[in-house]
Design brief:
By secondary structure, this protein is of the alpha+beta class. The protein has a domain at about 65-120 and about 130-265: Umud Fragment, subunit A (Ribbon), CATH 2.10.109.10. It has helices at about 10-40, 40-65, 115, 130-140, 275-310, and strands spanning about 65-70, 90-95, 105-110, 150-160, 160-165, 170-175, 175-180, 195-200, 205-210, 230-235, 235-245, 250-255, 265. The strands form two sheets. Strands 1, 2, 3, 4, 9, 10, 11 and 12 form an eight-stranded antiparallel beta sheet that branches. A five-stranded antiparallel beta sheet has the order 8-5-6-7-13, with no helix packed on it. The longest helix is centred in the last third of the chain and has 36 residues, at about 275-310. The protein is elongated and about 150 Å long. GO terms for molecular function: serine-type endopeptidase activity; signal peptidase activity. It is found in: Cell membrane; Membrane. It holds the Pfam family Peptidase_S26.
Length: about 300
């Protein structure tokens, strides 16, 4: 009997199945290889992430808010800063004044007007180009003092107002009213006196600024010789100081107490101009002369009448 010949189709099935499995495996391997090629290593992506973060931070600080280092003690104790010490780093809001006007009590950062720069020493930069580069980068991100001459002070009076110092209680006066300034810091608490200055009418579009450390601040009173040279154009204001971000021990908001809100009529002051101080004395002298003469005449008339009666 002739034995049946095995079907070639049956013999091919395992081979086709094996070949099919191999093809699928190869396809999966190729997909994994392509995916692996697309994924960058961490060390390749890290520099890209850093650059993107710096660009975003730069844009944010240029147009929305920026961190500034306080380089001086003129705003003690609201803001802490001194030469050679770890000063406060303050977040400054740069968009507030796009919608509102600067007002009394606002602590602002501004570019010094020309008269202010005459008496101020520019920030020192290293002669080493590499160090200077990192100083410039640090100033942008608030890690070093800014290269430009920026200042931080508190607005005391705005355009159209008249400011002077002081009344009988040694208070700054704006439009005839003595200011309420709870933020003032006295270097010598036993001698809370501040320097006097004559009335100054602040031009429209300018503000009058002063430091909270009233006895250790060269501000609108002395910059450029004081007076109208000491005012600051509103267009020079960079933004409003909002938050102390460093050091952690001083985290918190920056006070913006309006000193004019609870202002009271100024007490009669002895710090008026010298010719004004002499007015009462002159009036008294002029009035005293006829009074003395009249009293003499009355007295002599009384004496003569008494003699006639005798």
């Amino acid at each position: 009997m002739v034995e049946p010949v095995p079907s070639s189709a049956a013999e091919d099935e395992p081979e086709r199945a094996e070949n099919g499995e191999n093809a699928e495996t190869r396809a999966n391997r190729k997909r994994r290889n392509r995916k692996a090629k697309k994924q960058r290593s961490f060390w390749v992506e890290l520099p890209i992430l850093i650059v993107v973060a710096l660009v975003l931070a730069f844009v944010f600080q240029q147009f929305f808010a920026r961190v500034y280092t306080i380089p001086s003690a003129s705003m003690e104790s609201t803001l802490h800063g001194c030469t050679g010490c770890y000063g406060d780093k303050v977040l400054v809001d740069k968009i507030t004044y796009d919608f509102t006007d600067p007002g009394p009590g606002d602590v602002v950062v501004f570019k010094g007007p020309a008269p202010w720069l005459e008496n101020d020493v520019p920030t020192q930069r290293s002669d080493n180009p590499v160090v200077r580069f990192f100083q410039d980068i640090g100033s942008v991100f608030g890690l070093a003092p800014p290269d430009e001459r920026d200042f931080v002070k508190r607005i005391i009076a705005t355009g159209g107002q008249t400011v002077q110092c002081c009344d009988a209680q040694n208070r700054v006066v704006v439009d005839g009213k003595a200011l309420n300034e709870p933020y003032i810091h006295w270097v010598d608490p036993d001698n809370p006196r501040q320097d006097e200055f004559p009335p100054v009418k602040v031009p429209q579009g300018d503000v009058w600024v002063m430091g909270d450390n009233r006895n250790d601040s060269c501000d609108s009173r002395c910059q450029g010789g004081g007076g109208l040279n000491g005012v600051v154009p509103v267009e020079n204001i960079i933004g409003k100081a909002r938050i102390i971000v460093l050091p952690p021990s001083r985290w918190g908001g920056v006070s913006d107490t309006n000193p004019q809100e609870n202002a009271q009529p100024a007490a009669l002051s002895l710090s008026a101009a010298s010719w004004q101080q002499g007015v009462p004395l002159a009036v008294g002298a002029v009035g005293a002369w006829p009074a003395v003469a009249l009293s003499r005449r009355v007295g002599s008339g009384v004496r003569r009448a008494v003699k006639r009666k005798r």
